[in-house]
Amino acid sequence: MDNGIQTKLLRHDEEENEGDLKERVWAESKKIWRVALPGVISRVCAFGTIVVTQSFIGHISDMDLAAYALVQTLSVRFVNGILLGMSSATETLCGQAFGAGQHHMMGIYLQRSWIVDFFTLTVLLPIFIFATQLYRLIGEDEGIAVAGGYVSLWFIPFVYNFVFSLTIQMFLQAQLKNMVIAWLSIFQFGIHIPLSWLLVYKLGYGLPGAMIALSTSSWFLVIGEFIYIFGGWCPLSWKGFTVAAFKDLVPVVKLSIASGVMFGAMVQCCASLTCGIHGKCRSCHFCLFHMLEHQCMGVYDNVRVANELGRGNAKATKFSIKVLLGTSIAIGTFFFVLCLIFGKKIAYFFTDDERVADTVEDLSLLLSFSVLLNSIYPVLSGVAVGAGMQGTVAIINLVCYYVIGIPMGALLGYLTDLQVKGIWIGMIGGIITQTLALIYLTWRTDWDDQVKKAGERLNRFYVKSSDESEQLSK
């Protein structure tokens, strides 16, 4: 009888724990989607403008399409990756400041990120100005190199929007206000399509018209973000411009540089592909690869991790990581199946060439596995961003991409008959190695110690608000 009662009590406790776990998972999932869904919408719309522009150019000229694909794949993605990494310092600091209740510091961190990112992009401008010489150096066909240099100059007004759009999104999502970016991004994407049609076909501006439409619609988003922040919708986190933004820039730059290296683009290994069918196929795959990559939940988990570390809650941080990883893997599996089923049809969004479509279909299996892997390592990278461990992950990325992935891809791509497949297999090998290393890093991390480090970091950068200064003077 006693054994029976004990068994029932144990079963009752297990059911209660199971129910409690379900409630906790559901509550955490709602928090995740509150941050992630607007971010997913904005990232897809932002990259959608690039994809739409590529589609318009693809129906103008094969040479222009190959040049656009080269610039977008090599130069723009490289610069975007560096700026995204540099901006992730803002993500770490704003997320932890919000969790700690230091709201006024978020506006200062945002302004510091503008200074650092603007200077960084200006230093990187020779990549666009001397693009023709760069493409010749890496072995591109002369026609593609010249056309790429011309297209590259048109990208300069566009890439400067990254300085503000990336950092403002991180600033707003850290305080759970990024829904406004989703609506602005939808508006941006909505006007981009008719604007491209007007300039390319109706007015007959061709390639320049497509590039003007891309820059114009992208800056509409930035202007909308400025109106939202400066117009008083962020009263606690934006106190106006301040000279405090120029203080303590050195440690911020150090964290930003580590972040920039962490997000270094591995697409450089594809730079020496020639034009023609392989160039077009590369374009189709990388556009979709990039778009699906940013739909992964891992891009936004740094907000949850940073918020909880700022609050000093190590237990909630660990639980959030588990839920985020499970959710992201589920999304990745969905898109994995989607890419397998609709492999060939994807190509017709970018070209009418049947040969290109056949080649895309041939590479769809590799694309699918890339998407699946992208549902894991961005989560783990986001954990590092939220915790401020960019330096460690930067080393992991350098080794995995430049010591393992790129050499392996070069060997398989150029010393065998695999060509594009070989390069892609090498990239996947680097991602697998990176994923395993990040899993080990996350598993070995002492999150109680990370809470202490987050507190020390916030105290080091802290600047008294005007309200606090007035109270002290009284």
From TrEMBL:
One MF annotation (Gene Ontology) recorded for this entry: antiporter activity
Pfam family, one: MatE
Gene Ontology CC terms, in alphabetical order: membrane
Classification via CDD domains: MATE_eukaryotic (cd13132)
Membrane-spanning intervals of the chain: 114-138, 144-168, 180-201, 207-230, 323-343, 363-387, 394-416, 422-443
Protein location: Membrane
Entry keywords, A to Z: Membrane, Transmembrane, Transmembrane helix
InterPro entries in the record: MATE_euk, MATE_fam
Any one of the GO BP annotations: xenobiotic detoxification by transmembrane export across the plasma membrane
Coarse class of the protein's main subcellular location: membrane
Family to which the UniProt record says this protein belongs: Belongs to the multi antimicrobial extrusion (MATE) (TC 2.A.66.1) family.
Protein name according to UniProt: Protein DETOXIFICATION
Organism of origin: Lactuca sativa
